[in-house]
Design goal:
heteropentamer; A mainly alpha; B alpha/beta; C alpha/beta; D mainly alpha; A: mainly alpha; MetI-like fold; 2 domains; 18 helices; about 65% helix; B: 6-stranded mixed beta sheet; 10 helices; about 25% strand; globular; binds adenosine-5'-triphosphate; binds magnesium ion; binds phosphate ion; Phosphate_PstA (chain A); transmembrane helix (chain A); membrane (chain A)
Chain lengths: ~450, ~260, ~325, ~500, ~260
C-alpha cells in the first residue's frame, strides 16, 4: 500500500468516488506510479533469482575448479619380479608390506636402468615417488594369484601424492625445499620418466569407486564406499521419512481434532526442525546404539537418525501444502459419498504433491549433506571398509557417508586431500541431482492451478 | 464438532423420509437456523425458498452432515432419515452421504477430467461392473443433466475449463451418477439458461419417481413448477411449510405472502 | 545380534591419522579385518569407551591426553575396570606463519606479552595494548599481532596455556609481580593464561586446515599447528623457533623443544581374546616397524616415544592402569 | 525358517488373503459389486491386513524377546569364574560368535550338523577348525564356551521353529478370521480405514516420541551439569570461557545472543530474496524459466555446509573486510577480521534461499486463480494482487517455510565455526566474531575436556536450553499464523 | 498470451463506448468466440443472453482483458473502448480494468474481512482521502448492493463466511466501489432471491445514468426489465443484437426466436 498514496481526487459527499475520464493510451500519474511499483516488484523478483543463481554459480565454480583434478591420478608402471624366496621372506615378517617395498624399489631402479635414465639415488629413495600403498597392491596381487609367483608382472602403481601434485601443478621445486618426503631431484626424474611413458596421468576410476585410505596415502583415497554408505542411508531416509512424514501430516492436518494437544504436537514438530542436527546424533547414539543395540557406524543407524532429522522438514512442508488445498475440493468429494480418507488420498494429496515433493527434495538434500549427527554414531573417521557383500550387510556393516568422508578429507594434513575433498563434493552434488531428478519431474507433473 | 442433545423421545415418523426436529445451527455465535422442525416426504420434491442468507443452504447441508466440515459450525436437535437419527455416533457420515447426494451452490468440479469428475462417485461406490458400465453411467448422467452434447467430444479435458453453467450441470451429473436416495440441490439452475433449466427440471421430475429431492431455489416459478411441497425460510426460521399449491395461492403467514408477491425488504 | 569381528576405535582427532595409518597397515598385513577408527574427540571417545563392556561398545579409545581420574571412576561404575594405557608418542606443537613472511624466533615471554588479556605495567595490571610483535620484543619483526590459537575445546589449548602462556608469565616475572601485588596465587595463574578478546587472538575450534585457511586469508597471522601438519605443508608454512629450538621429531623426542604433549590409546582388557585381533592390533601399533623413529608414523610426523620398548612390554603383558 | 523367508511367507499369505477375501465378498454378492458395502479391494485389504498386522507384531515381539530368553538360559551355564575373569556380556558374545562360527562352518560344509552339536574342545581345536572357514576368534575356545555355544544353537533352532509356527499361525488365523467375515454387508472400508487411521496416528506419534527421546537423552546429563555448575551462572552469565583447569565461566547469554543475531541476519537475507524469488517464479516466470530456476535454486540447499563455511572464510569474509574494514571502501573501521556475525549470516542466508523460495512457490501456486481474477478485475496491478491477496492467503505456508529456514539457521554449525568464529562475545557490532549455541554444543561434545566435567556436560544443557527457547519461538509463530491466517473459500 | 492481428484500418466509431470487431477467442483449439462484432453504447445497459456455454462470459472477459490470465486463451480481432484499442501494446491492462469493472460469474470474495473486501479497490486506486471517506464508500457500496443491513454488524468477519447470495452481492459492491466507467456483470443475480434481485436491478438502473453496463443473464425477464439493448449469442456467434424491445418482440433470427420462446434444444 505504500506506493499508492491517496492523492487522487476523492469522492463526493455521496461517498461514491467519481473519477475523471482518461484515455487508456495515456497513462495517468497514479497508474504510472503503480506501474513503476509493479516493474520494481518484478525486478526485485528477477534480482532475487539472479542473486540465488549468482551464488550458485560462484559456489559451483569454486567446487569444480578445486575438485576436477581429483578425477585424474598419476600412475607409475613398474614390472616387478615376484621371486619366490622374497615373497616367502616377506610373508614371514610382522609388517609384511615393508618387505614388498624392497622388491618394488629394486624393480623401479631396474626399470629406470632399462629406460636409460641415470640416477644416483638409492632404490629406497626412489620409492618416495610411489604411494606407500604400492606394497599392499603388490601383496594383494600375490595373495590373489599365488600361481604367478616367480613371474614378472607389470604393475600400475600409484605415484605419491607429491609426484601427482607436481604433474597437476600443485607442487613446485621451490615448495619442496623444506619437504622431507620428496626432493627436487625426484621431480627431475619424474620429468624423464614421463617422457619415457613410465609415469602417466590418467582418469582415475578408483576415486569414484574406491574406499578411504589413511592419512599417509591421499593418492589412494576414493569416495566409492562412502557413496554406498550414503546410498543405504538415503534409502532408509526416503522409505521411512517420506511415508511417515506424509502420514503424520495427513493425520494432523485432516483428521486430528483441533485442540490443545494437537497444537502442542504442531509446535513440537516445528520445534524439532530447530533442533541442531548433532542433538539427533546424541539421540541416535542413546536410542539406536545403546538402547536398541544396533551396530556402531552402521548406515542403518545413520539412516534412522537422518530420518528423524528430516521428518520435521517433510511434515512442515506437507502440512503447508495440505492447508493450501481449497476446502471446496474436499466438500465435492465428501458430497458424492467419499469417505474422509478417500477424499484425502484421491483428491487432496495429489493437489498437495508439489509441496510434499519440495519438502522431500530439501529434506533429502539436507540429510545427504549432514555430518554432525554421524560424528556421534561413529560414521566419521577412518572407516575404510570394503563394498558390502550383501544388501543386509550394506545396512549393517560399518561405513561412512559422503559428507563425512569429505569432512574428514578436508581436515587432513596432506594438501592432496584438499582436492579430493572438493572432488568428493562434485560427486555428492551429482548424487544429489540424480536423487532429486525424479522428484523434480514428478513435481512438475502434479502442478496445476484451479 | 456437532453436538447432539439426546432426543427425549423420538416419535414414530415413519411416513416421512426425512424428519427434522428442533434443529438449531450456530456458526460460532451466529444463530443461523432457529428451531426448525420439518418432515420431508419420500418421492416428492420439496422446495426451500426464502431470502438470501436466511439459512436454506445451511439447513440443506445439515441433512447430509456436510456441516461437519465447517469447524465453527455446531448443530443441535435431531434429523431422522428413514427413522434413523443421522447424528447418532453410530451413523457413518460416509454412508449417509452416499445415500443423500448433494449439488452445491457454487459449482465445485474436481481439477480432473470431465469423465473422472462423473466417474469418481460410481468408482468409489463400486456401481459399475466394468469399464463399459462406467462409461455408460457417465454418459447417461451427463445426458440427464443436459450436458452430454456439449462435452461428449472433450470428456478428457479438465472439468474446471467449463463455463459456469456447464460446471453446474457437471456437478448435477456427478451427484446423480451415484444414484442416491435423496438428492439435495442448492440452486441447481442458478447459472442455467431457460432451456437448460427446463432440462434439469425435467430431470427432477423424472427422478421424483424413485428419489426424494430437496431443492433450494430463488425462482418462485421454478418452485411452483417442480415441487410438490414448499418450505419458506426467513431469518433462520422455518416460517411455513406445505403443499406448494397452498403456499403460493394461500400462504398462512404474512411474511410468506410478502415474499412470494415480492413485497419484502 | 551378530557378533562383531572388527575392532572399533573412537576418540581423538589428533591420534586419528596415526591410528588410521596403523589400521590400514593392520588390515593389509594380517588376516583380521581393518579396524574402524571413528573420530569425534578425546572426550567423546573416552565417553563411549566408558559406557560399558560388551560387543556393542568400542574396544579402544584414542586420546590426546591422559585419561582423568573422574573418567576412570565413571568407567569403573559402568564396569570398565581393566584399562590398558598405551602411549604411542608425542605430538609436537609448533608456531608457524606464512612461508613468505618474516622469520620469527619466539620465547614464551613474547607470547605471554603479546596475547595475555592483561599484563603487568608498572606493577599494576592493565589491558594489553601491544599491537605489533616488535612492541613485545625488539628482536621480533614489526608485524601486527594476529594469532590463531586452538579453541577451548582442544587439548592443544591446554598445552599452549601451560607451556607457553604460563611459562611466559613466569619467565617475564609477571606472575611474581602479581603475587607480590597481593593477588591470590590461583587468580594470578588464571590471569596468566587468559587471552585477549579484542581480535588479536582468534580461537580456532576447527582443525589445522582451518588455521591454515585463516593464515591464507590473513598473511600477517601466526598459527599454532601440530608438527605433522606443518611437515605436510612446508610449502606454505614457515616454522618459528621457540627458545631458539627448531621443532622437529628429534628435538622434541630429546626434550629440547618444550611444547609437546603425549598421545595415548586405551584398550579394554576385557575385550582382549573376545574381539578378534585386539591384542595383535595393540602390539602392531607400538611395534618398532610402525611407531619407531623410522616407521611410517614418525614419517608422518609423530614424535616417536623414546621409551617405546617399555610400552611394548606393557602391552605384551597387558598391564592395566592401577589407581 | 530364516527371517526374510518368514517375512516373505507372511507377505505371500497376505497376498493370497487379498485375493481370497476379495473373491469371497464378490461371491457373496453374486459377482455384482454394486451389492457390496465397500469396493472389493477393501475386502481384500481387510484380509491382507488381518494377516499381516498380528503376524508382524508377533514377529517383532518375538525378535525382541527370544534373544533375552536364550541369553538367560545360556548364561546360566556360564561359571562364575569366567564371569569374574571378564564379564558376562563379553563371554556371551564369545559364545554367540562361536555359535555363529559353527553355523558358518555347517553352511560351508566344513562340519556336519551332528559334528557341530557334538564337537568337543578336548578332541578338536575349534579355533582352528573355524579359522579354516574364515571365522576369526579372539582366543581359544574353552569347553564351557563351546558347550554354551552348542546349547545356544540348540535353543536358537528351537526358538526359530517356534517363531515360524507362531507367526505364520497368527497370519493364517488372522486371514481366516477376516476372510470368513468377508460378506457383502461387512463394512470392509470402515475397517480398513480404521487401520489406516491408526497407522497415521502412529506416524504422527513418531514425531512426539522423537521429542521425548531428545528430552530423555539430554536430561540426565543436563541435571548432572547443574549439579556441577550453578544454574544461575549458566543462564545469566555474560561470559563464555571454558577452560580445562577448572574455573570455567559458562554463561549462555553471549551464545544465545549470537545465535539470534546470526539467524536474524540469515533470515534478513533469505526471506526477502526467497520470497521475491518465489513470487517471481510462481506469478511472473514462464513455465520454462520456472522449471529450470526452481531446481537450480534448490541445489543451494544441497551444497554441503562445509563448502559454505569455506566460502565464508575465504571469499565473503575478506570481501567484507575490504568494504567495512580498516582502510576499506567505506572508510569505516568496523571490521577487524573476516570472521564475523555478518559473514556467517550472509552466507547462511544464501544457503537458506531455497528453503523459503521453493516451498513458498508451491503454496503461492496453490492459491486459487479466482483470487487473482477478483483482484485483477478491480484494476489491481499484479504486484498489488500478490502483496494484498495472494501472500496473505498463502501466509500459513510461507510462515512454515520461514520457520524451516530459521530452524535451519539456528541448527547450523559449520558455517558459524568458519564464518563467525569460535570465541563467544557479547557485542552489538555485527562485524565482530561471535559464536552460537549449536557451534558450542558440537565443540564441547567433540572436544578434549574430561567427559564428566562441566565443560563437556554443558553441551547437553545448551541443547536443552536451545530446545526450550525455540519452543517458545515456535509457539509465538503459531500464534501469529492463527491470528493472521486467511482461509480462502 | 493474447495475440492481436494488427488492425488494418480502424474506422472511427466514436459514438460507441465499446466496439468490438471480428473478435475471435480460442481456448487452445476450442474456438469459443467466432467473429463477433458489436457496439455497446455509452450509458446504456446491454444484456448478453444465450444458452449456457455459448461464450457470453468469454466475450465479457475480453472487454477488460481478464482473459489475459488464462494461459490457453488467445484473442484475435480488436476491441475499442472510447475509440482506443484495448489490445494495443501501449494500453495498460491495469488502467483498463480500473475503468472497466467486473463482477464474476462465481462469487470470489477475498479471504479478508467484509470491509477489506470492499475497501480493497478504493485503496489501491487511492479513491479515499481518509479513513472516514473509505468507510463512507464501503457503506454506500454495500447499501447499493442491498447487503448493508445483513452485514453491517459483521464487517470484520471474513467475506468467505457469507451465504452464496451474500457473497454475490459482496462482489457487486466490491466492483462498484471503485466506480468504473463500464461495469461488466456476469449473472449478478443468479444466486439472489427476487427481492435482492429487484434491489440489484434498481441499482443497475441507477448506475446507467453515469455508467455503461453489460450484464449477462439467463433470465429473459431480467434482460427485458433492465436492459436497453440485448445481444444474443449462440455457439460462439453473435446471432443478433438490437434494442431489447425489438429482440424480444420481433427477433430477426430464427434461433433468437427459438431461444426466447424457450423452444430450443
Ligand atoms: N478456461 C477454459 N478452457 C477451455 N475452454 C473453456 C474455458 N472457459 C470456457 N471454455 C469453453 O468456452 C465456451 C464458452 O464458455 P463461456 O464461459 O464463455 O460460456 P458462457 O456463455 O458464459 O456459459 P454459461 O452461461 O454457462 O456461463 C464453453 O464451451 C466452455 O466450455
Ligand atoms: N461458514 C460460515 N461462517 C459464518 N457464517 C456463515 C457461514 N455460512 C453461512 N453463514 C451465515 O449463515 C446465514 C445463513 O447462510 P446460508 O448460506 O444458509 O444462507 P442461504 O439461505 O443459503 O442464502 P443464499 O440464498 O444467499 O445462498 C447467513 O447469514 C450467512 O452469513
Ligand atoms: Mg445458499
Ligand atoms: Mg458464463
Ligand atoms: O580430537 P582431539 O581430542 O585430539 O582434539
Amino acid at each position: 500500500m505504500t506506493d499508492t498514496a491517496m492523492t487522487y481526487p476523492a469522492g463526493k459527499e455521496s461517498g461514491q468516488a467519481v473519477r475523471r475520464k482518461t484515455s487508456l493510451l495515456e497513462v495517468d500519474a497514479l497508474t504510472r506510479r503503480r506501474n513503476a511499483a509493479e516493474r520494481r516488484f518484478k525486478i526485485y523478483g528477477i534480482v532475487a533469482i539472479l542473486i540465488g543463481l549468482f551464488f550458485l554459480v560462484a559456489l559451483l565454480y569454486a567446487i569444480f575448479s578445486n575438485g576436477l583434478t581429483a578425477f585424474n591420478q598419476t600412475f607409475v608402471s613398474v614390472p616387478v619380479t615376484l621371486e619366490k624366496s622374497a615373497v616367502e621372506q616377506a610373508e614371514a615378517s610382522i609388517v609384511k608390506t615393508s618387505r614388498y617395498n624392497a622388491m618394488i624399489d629394486e624393480a623401479l631402479a631396474a626399470e629406470l636402468g632399462r629406460a636409460g635414465i641415470a640416477t644416483e639415488m638409492k632404490p629406497a629413495d626412489l620409492r618416495k615417488m610411489l604411494s606407500s600403498g604400492a606394497a599392499a597392491q603388490v601383496r594383494s596381487f600375490v595373495l590373489a594369484n599365488p600361481g604367478r609367483i616367480g613371474e614378472t608382472v607389470t604393475f600400475d602403481l600409484l605415484a605419491s601424492s607429491r609426484v601427482d601434485g607436481y604433474l597437476k601443478g600443485r607442487v613446485t621445486r621451490d615448495a619442496l625445499v623444506n619437504d622431507k618426503n620428496l626432493d627436487a631431484a625426484h621431480l627431475d626424474l619424474v620429468d624423464l620418466m614421463q617422457d619415457k611413458g613410465i609415469v602417466e596421468k590418467r582418469f582415475n576410476m578408483d576415486f569414484i569407486t574406491g574406499s578411504d585410505a589413511s592419512d599417509s596415502r591421499p593418492e589412494q583415497a576414493g569416495i566409492g564406499v562412502s557413496m554406498i554408505g550414503s546410498l543405504y542411508m538415503m534409502l532408509v531416509v526416503l522409505f521411512l521419512s517420506l511415508p511417515i512424514g506424509v502420514a503424520a501430516s495427513i493425520y494432523l492436518e485432516e483428521f486430528a481434532p483441533k485442540n490443545r494437544l494437537t497444537d502442542l504436537i504442531e509446535v513440537n514438530i516445528s520445534n524439532l526442525a530447530a533442533v541442531p542436527s548433532i542433538v539427533f546424533g546424541i539421540l541416535g547414539l542413546a536410542a539406536f546404539i545403546q538402547f536398541a543395540h544396533l551396530p556402531q557406524s552402521a548406515p542403518i543407524v545413520g539412516g534412522l537418525v537422518l530420518t528423524l532429522m528430516t521428518l520435521p522438514t517433510i511434515i512442515i512442508s506437507t502440512r503447508a501444502s495440505l492447508k493450501a488445498v481449497p476446502p471446496s475440493i474436499r466438500d465435492a468429494a465428501l458430497g458424492v459419498g467419499a469417505s474422509k480418507m478417500q477424499s484425502v488420498f484421491h483428491h487432496v494429496l495429489p493437489l498437495a504433491a508439489p509441496g510434499i515433493l519440495t519438502g522431500t527434495i530439501i529434506g533429502l538434500a539436507q540429510a545427504l549433506g549432514e555430518t554432525a549427527p554421524l560424528l556421534l554414531i561413529g560414521m566419521v573417521g577412518f572407516i575404510a571398509s570394503n563394498y558390502p557383500g550383501s544388501v543386509a550387510s550394506g545396512f549393517l556393516d560399518p561405513n561412512s557417508a559422503m559428507p563425512a568422508q569429505i569432512y574428514e578429507w578436508a581436515k587432513r594434513a596432506d594438501p592432496a586431500f584438499y582436492e579430493r575433498a572438493w572432488g568428493g563434493i562434485i560427486v555428492l552434488l551429482l548424487f544429489l541431482m540424480t536423487m532429486n531428478i525424479v522428484a523434480i519431474i514428478l513435481r512438475r507433473r502434479f502442478e496445476r492451478r484451479w | 464438532m456437532n453436538q447432539m442433545t439426546k432426543p427425549e423421545k423420538v416419535a414414530a415418523m415413519n411416513e416421512a423420509k426425512i424428519s427434522a426436529e428442533k434443529v438449531q445451527v450456530f456458526y460460532g455465535d451466529t444463530h443461523a437456523i432457529k428451531d426448525v422442525s420439518i418432515r420431508i416426504e419420500e418421492k416428492t420434491v420439496t422446495a426451500f425458498i426464502g431470502p438470501s442468507g436466511c439459512g436454506k443452504s445451511t439447513f440443506l447441508r445439515c441433512i447430509n452432515r456436510m456441516n461437519d466440515t465447517i469447524d465453527v459450525c455446531r448443530v443441535e436437535g435431531n434429523i431422522l432419515i428413514d427413522g434413523e437419527d443421522i447424528y447418532d455416533p453410530k451413523v457413518d457420515p460416509v454412508q449417509l452421504r452416499a445415500k443423500v447426494g448433494m449439488v452445491f451452490q457454487k459449482p465445485n468440479p474436481f481439477p480432473k477430467s470431465i469423465f473422472d469428475n462423473i466417474a469418481y462417485g460410481p468408482r468409489i461406490h463400486g456401481l459399475a461392473r466394468n469399464k463399459a458400465a462406467l462409461e455408460e453411467i457417465v454418459a447417461s448422467s451427463l445426458q440427464k443433466a443436459g450436458l452430454w452434447n456439449e462435452v461428449k467430444d472433450r470428456l478428457d479435458e479438465p472439468g474446471t475449463g467449463l463455463s459456469g453453467g456447464q460446471q453446474q450441470r457437471l456437478c448435477i451429473a456427478r451427484a446423480i451418477a451415484v444414484s442416491p436416495e435423496v438428492i439435495l440441490m442448492d440452486e441447481p439452475c442458478s447459472a442455467l439458461d431457460p432451456i437448460a433449466t427446463a432440462k434439469v427440471e425435467e430431470l427432477i421430475d423424472e427422478l421424483r419417481e424413485n428419489y426424494t429431492i430437496v431443492i433450494v431455489t430463488h425462482s418462485m416459478q421454478q418452485a411452483a413448477r417442480v415441487s410438490q411441497r414448499t418450505a419458506f425460510f426467513h431469518l433462520g426460521n422455518l416460517v411455513e411449510e406445505g403443499a406448494t399449491n397452498d403456499i403460493f395461492t394461500n400462504p398462512r403467514d404474512k411474511r410468506t405472502q410478502d415474499y412470494i408477491t415480492g413485497r419484502f425488504g | 545380534a551378530i557378533a562383531r569381528d572388527q575392532i572399533q576405535i573412537a576418540g581423538s582427532s589428533t591420534v586419528l591419522p596415526y591410528a588410521s595409518i596403523v589400521a590400514e597397515a593392520f588390515g593389509e598385513n594380517t588376516d583380521f579385518p581393518t579396524p574402524v577408527v571413528e573420530s569425534g574427540g578425546s572426550s567423546a571417545g573416552l565417553k563411549k569407551f566408558c559406557t560399558g563392556v560388551g560387543e556393542n561398545t568400542i574396544d579402544i579409545a584414542n586420546a590426546s591426553r591422559p585419561i582423568r581420574e573422574s573418567e576412570i571412576k565413571a568407567c569403573a561404575e559402568a564396569g570398565v575396570t581393566d584399562i590398558m594405557e598405551v602411549r604411542i608418542g608425542y605430538d609436537g606443537i609448533v608456531f608457524a606463519s606464512d612461508i613468505n613472511g618474516a622469520d620469527f624466533a619466539f620465547t614464551p615471554t613474547d607470547w605471554y606479552k603479546a596475547l595475555a588479556a592483561e599484563v603487568v605495567v608498572d606493577g599494576k595490571l592493565a589491558a594489553n595494548s601491544a599491537t605489533t610483535w616488535k612492541q613485545v620484543n625488539d628482536a621480533l619483526p614489526e608485524q601486527e599481532i594476529q594469532a590463531f590459537v586452538p579453541g577451548t575445546k582442544h587439548g592443544t589449548r591446554e598445552v599452549f596455556e601451560e607451556k607457553v602462556m604460563m611459562q611466559g608469565c613466569e619467565d617475564s616475572g609477571a606472575l611474581k609481580a602479581m603475587v607480590d601485588g597481593g593477588m591470590d596465587k590461583k587468580d594470578a595463574a588464571k590471569k596468566c593464561i587468559t587471552l585477549r578478546t579484542d581480535g588479536r587472538s582468534v580461537d580456532i575450534d576447527g582443525d589445522y586446515t582451518e588455521t591454515l585457511a585463516r593464515l591464507d586469508a590473513n598473511k600477517a597471522g601466526i598459527g599454532v599447528f601440530g608438527l605433522a601438519f606443518y611437515e605436510n605443508n612446508t610449502d606454505k608454512l614457515k616454522v618459528a623457533t621457540m627458545s631458539d629450538v627448531t621443532p622437529s621429531t628429534q628435538s622434541i623426542a630429546s626434550g629440547e623443544y618444550p611444547v609437546s604433549r603425549p598421545l595415548f590409546f586405551y584398550v579394554k582388557k576385557a575385550h582382549i581374546g573376545v574381539i578378534p585381533g585386539l591384542k595383535e592390533f595393540a602390539q602392531f601399533f607400538v611395534s618398532d616397524e610402525l611407531a619407531g623413529p623410522d616407521g611410517p608414523l614418525a614419517q608422518y610426523g609423530l614424535v616417536s616415544d623414546p621409551e617405546l620398548a617399555k610400552v611394548q612390554e606393557a602391552v605384551a603383558s597387558e598391564t592395566t592402569l592401577t589407581h | 525358517m530364516s527371517l526374510p523367508l518368514i517375512v516373505l511367507v507372511i507377505l505371500a499369505l497376505a497376498a493370497a488373503g487379498f485375493v481370497l477375501g476379495r473373491g469371497r465378498a464378490m461371491a457373496s454378492a453374486g459377482g455384482d459389486i454394486r451389492l457390496l458395502h465397500s469396493l472389493p479391494g477393501y475386502y481384500g485389504w481387510n484380509v491382507a491386513l488381518a494377516a499381516m498386522i498380528p503376524a508382524f507384531l508377533a514377529l517383532v515381539l518375538w525378535l525382541a524377546i527370544q534373544p533375552v530368553v536364550i541369553n538367560g538360559q545360556v548364561s546360566s551355564m556360564i561359571s562364575q569364574g569366567s564371569i569374574d575373569a571378564s564379564s558376562l556380556d563379553l563371554v556371551m558374545s564369545d559364545v554367540r560368535r562361536v555359535a555363529e562360527g559353527l553355523d558358518t562352518a555347517v553352511a560351508a560344509g566344513a562340519l556336519t550338523a551332528e559334528e557341530a552339536g557334538s564337537l568337543r574342545t578336548e578332541f578338536t581345536d575349534v579355533r582352528e577348525r573355524l579359522g579354516q572357514v574364515g571365522v576369526a576368534l579372539g582366543s581359544d575356545v574353552t569347553s564351557e564356551t563351546l558347550h554354551a555355544a552348542q546349547r545356544y544353537r540348540e535353543l536358537s533352532g528351537l526358538g526359530d521353529l517356534g517363531r515360524a509356527i507362531v507367526v505364520l499361525g497368527l497370519a493364517v488365523l488372522g486371514a481366516a478370521w477376516a476372510w470368513q467375515r468377508s460378506n457383502k454387508d461387512f463394512r470392509a472400508r470402515n475397517s480398513v480405514e480404521r487401520v489406516v487411521r491408526w497407522i497415521l496416528i502412529a506416524a504422527a506419534s513418531i514425531a512426539v516420541l522423537t521429542t521425548v527421546g531428545i528430552a530423555l537423552s539430554l536430561i540426565f546429563n543436563t541435571v548432572e551439569f547443574f549439579r556441577l555448575y550453578p544454574a544461575a551462572d549458566f543462564f545469566f552469565g555474560l561470559t563464555w570461557s571454558p577452560s580445562f583447569g577448572g574455573g570455567s565461566e559458562l554463561g549462555i547469554i553471549p551464545l544465545i545472543w549470537a545465535t539470534l543475531y546470526i539467524s536474524l541476519i540469515a533470515l534478513a537475507v533469505s526471506v526477502p530474496v526467497g520470497l521475491f524469488a518465489a513470487v517471481y517464479l510462481s506469478e511472473y516466470a514462464t513455465p520454462a524459466v520456472r522449471a529450470v530456476a526452481k531446481p537450480l535454486l534448490e541445489v543451494l540447499a544441497g551444497i554441503p555446509t562445509i563448502v559454505y563455511g569455506l566460502f565464508a572464510l575465504l571469499t565473503v569474509g575478506p570481501l567484507l573486510v575490504d568494504v567495512f574494514g580498516n582502510g576499506g571502501l567505506l572508510g569505516v573501521d568496523w571490521m577487524a577480521g573476516g570472521t564475523a556475525v555478518m559473514t556467517a549470516g550472509l552466507v547462511m542466508g544464501i544457503m537458506l534461499i531455497p528453503f523459503v523460495s521453493s516451498l513458498s512457490d508451491d503454496i503461492i501456486n496453490a492459491v486459487p486463480q479466482a483470487m487473482r481474477d477478483g483482484s485483477l478485475g478491480l484494476g489491481a496491478t499484479h504486484s498489488e494482487t500478490v502483496k494484498q491477496v495472494i501472500l496473505p492467503a498463502a501466509l500459513p505456508g510461507i510462515v512454515g517455510a520461514i520457520l524451516l529456514a530459521a530452524s535451519r539457521a539456528i541448527g547450523e554449525t559449520m558455517i558459524v565455526v568458519l564464518g563467525a568464529g569460535a570465541a563467544a562475545k557479547l557485542s552489538l557490532n555485527p562485524f565482530e566474531a561471535m559464536t552460537t549455541v549449536t557451534a558450542k554444543i558440537v565443540s564441547q561434545l567433540t572436544g578434549d575436556a574430561d567427559f564428566a566435567s562441566p565443560e563437556a556436560l554443558v553441551a547437553f544443557s545448551l541443547g536443552m536450553t536451545l530446545f526450550v527457547i525455540t519452543l517458545g519461538l515456535n509457539i509465538f509463530a503459531l500464534y501469529i499464523v492463527r491470528k493472521y491466517r486467511e482461509q480462502y473459500e
